[in-house]
Amino acid sequence: MIVRAALCGMLATAAWAMTASVQAADSDGAPVVTVTGQSAAAASLDARVAKLERLLEGQALADLLTRIQHLQEDVQRLRGDLEVQGNDLNGLKQRQRDLYLDIDRRLQQLETSVATAAAAPASSSPPPPPPVPAAGPSSTAMTALAPAAPATAANPEQEQAAYQKAFDLLKDGHYDDAVAAFHDMLTAYPAGKLVDNAQYWLGEAHFAARRFREAADEFAKVVNNYPQSPKVPDAMLKLGFSYYELGDWAKSRNSLEQLTARYPQSTAAQLADRRLQRMKAEGH
Question: Which of 25, 135, 144, 202 fits as disulfide partner to 182, beta carbons 3.0 to 4.6 Å?
C-alpha cells in the first residue's frame, strides 16, 4: 500500500510539472506546434518550391529563346553570305560571256579585214574594155541575145554590219531581238562568210532565253549544215547542254561523247567531259 501511494504521488507530481511547463511556454510566447501549424508550414514550403520551379522554368525558357535568336542570326548571316556568293558567281558568268563574245567579235573583224585586203588588188585593177561588136545584127538584137548579168555578190561590209547588230543585241541581253536580227541576217546573206557564226549565236540567244528546244534545233544546224566550221565543237557542246536541260539524257550523252571523240584537244571537249562526269554522278 505504501509503495502504491508513492507511485501515485510521483505520477501526480509529473503531471503537475508537465502542465506547469506548458503553461509557462504559453505565457512566454513560445510557439506551440499543432496539427494546424504543421499544415500551414507544409503549404508554405510547397508554395516556395512551386515558385522556385517557375523561376527555373522561366530561366530555361529565356535561355532557349536566346539560343533560338542566336541561331536565327547565324542563319541570316549565312543567307547573306550565300546571296553575296551567288551575285559574285552570276557576275563572273556574265564577265566570261562578255569576254567570249568580245573575242568572237574581234576574230570576225580580223577575218573581215583579211578578206577585204585580199580582195583589194583585184578590185583596184581597171575592168577590161568591152569587146567591139562585129558587123552583124543590130545592137538591140545583141542586147537581147546577151546572157543575163550575174546577181550582185553580197557586200561583206553590209553582212558584217548586220552580224554585229545582232551580236550586240545578244551581248546586251536582248535575246528576242537578237534572234530576230540573226534570222534576218541569215535570210539576207545565206551564202555569206559569217553564216555559221550567225547560226551558232542564234542558238546561243535561244539558250540564254532558256528556250532549250529551239536552241537544240539551231545548234544542230551548225553541226549538220557547216561541218567544217570552227564553231562545230562549241555547237556540239551546247547541243549536249540543251538536251541536258530538256532531260533527254541519251541525246545529251551522245552529243557530248561524239564531241570528246572528234575534238579531244578542244576546250569544248574538256567541258563536255566534266558534264559527262556530272551526269554519271547524278545517275543519268
Answer: 202
Return the exposure string of 135-151: e unless at least 16 CB atoms fall within 10 Å of the residue's CB, then b. eeeeeeeeeeeeeeeee
Residue-wise pLDDT tens digits, 73-128: 778 778 777 777 776 676 666 666 666 666 665 655 555 554 455 444 444 444 44
Among the listed residues 222, 265, 204, 261, the one whose alpha carbon sits nearest the alpha carbon of residue 276: 261
Count of Cβ atoms closer than 10 Å to residue 101 Cβ: 16
How high is the pLDDT of residue 251? 96
pTM above 0.85, yes or no: no
Nearest to 199 by CA among 173, 171, 175, 223: 223
Class in CATH terms, 157-284: mainly alpha
Q: Report the pLDDT value the prediction gives residue 2, as an integer from 0 to 100.
A: 52
Domains of the chain by residue range: 48-90, 157-284
Query: How many whole angstroms separate alpha carbon 56 and alpha carbon 118?
Result: 93
Which runs of consecutive H residues, i.e. helices, occur in 190-231? 195-208, 212-225
Q: Identify the CA nearest to 242 among candidates 256, 229, 232.
A: 256
* C-beta separation of 257 from 222 below 8 A: no
Q: Find the mean pLDDT for residues 213-232.
A: 96
CA distance 239 to 217: 8
Q: Tell me, what DSSP letter sits at residue 133?
A: P
What's residue 121's pLDDT? Answer: 46
Radius of gyration of the chain (CA): 50
